[in-house]
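Researcher: Re-running this chain for the archive, since the previous output was lost when a drive failed. Same request as before.
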Amino acid sequence: MKETNLISILSAYNNLDKDSFDSYLNYHGTKIKNSELKDLQVFVDHLKGLSKSIALFDKYFIGYSIPQIGKEFDLLRMDQETIVNIELKRNSTEEAIAAQLQRNKYYLGFLNKTINCYTYVADYKKLYILDPANILQEVSLRQLIRELVSQKVKRIPNLDSYFNPANYLVSPFNSTQEFVKRKYFLTKQQEEIKNDVLKQLSSPKHSILAIKGNAGTGKTLLTYDIANEVLNTKEILVVHCGYLNDGQILLRDNFAWDIIPVKVVMHQDLSKYHLIIVDEAQRIYTSQLNHLISQVKKLSNNIIFSYDGQQTLRKGEINNNAAEKIEQELTSNPYELTNKIRTNKEVASFIQCLFSKKRSLEKYKYDNIELNYFDNYEEAKAYLKQLRDEDWKVINYTPSTVNALPYEAHNLEIESDNAHTVIGQEFNNVVAVIDGHFYYKSGYLSTRNYKNNPYYHPTKMLFQIVSRTRLKLGIVVIKNQEILARCLEILNQK
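Model: Regenerated structure tokens:
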């Protein structure tokens, strides 16, 4: 995205044909609606009436959106010490204005600059600011002019470099303290689902609800945020379909959450709970699911199933098809999260193309993918240990309890986490190993030549591992030219 002059953008809007104007916006990397351009015109005309300085209108980022997060700002102007953010509204309530500016202040706060967040309401030609105490105040445009004039703005070649998406991706499990303190904001889609779910839960009748979404869509944060909200006034129970992780144990032991593994749910008294949440419900046994459904109907309490149908790890879970059975029991349509907010676009594209040769290759720089090849397990394992020391998260394949499997030869003994223990968690930099047993069958990634059939599906475990990353993904290929060739084919599309 390039900085632009506000007068220049409006001149182009008012004088160029649509194709030329769209091309001009594309050159600047700017997206702005016609209605927003009209509000911008009112704002610029108001400023022009008070100041003749052309520099006042220069070097703005219009409609900038933080990568992965999707948080958008109407106008941003930065120098080394300060950020001025201006939101444009046709009309709005003071409550809505204050809420938006608080969000903006939060997202901009990680840049360690003095932040001034304004909203200009075009219908009334009024300007509002959020003061240091987060109180909304109406101010004169002259105050804004003084701040803009005092800025010593210079060209910023890459605004994205100022924003680290990891700062905003709060996980209930890996950033538990920040989660409990509510140091996060939901996306617009998450907020809409949350409000509708809370409305359903307030009904006198029992509710059987579902929140589903693929890896990286913010399903876990939304589910636990709803739990946190309800917990203020009502009793809740979280049932996790897997091993309890450190974050869940912290919520249970330090913050008085009722969280249990699903294996003990059949012996749990459910009568005192207003809400039961079943996390990673795609892994639930049919008998456990039937028990929960029958109890909710009998006790007239509420239940939310949170799941991702792709995150199954063994043949039995695939065949059970818990998602389909859950959706037959729902009291309203399932809520589906569709926007990826955890995994950046290049990593998501790489993962999709790795698992399916039928996916169209996309041209990215792929700066966040690291690929290394080894011809033996010993040297690969030594390299994994080195990466672990460099703060990469090396996730083991889940070992078998019956027969030793080939992938256990590259598992790290010093690493306690495996594909099962990291379910629902996220890490900045993740490493995954692909050995010689992987190949493409009818265009899709699969495995072969196991002496003993693995209880847990290796391809499913690999997907679980790679989908835990937030920023960077490391792939270590061991003696597999076919997989290496596919990785290089993806990465060389520049």
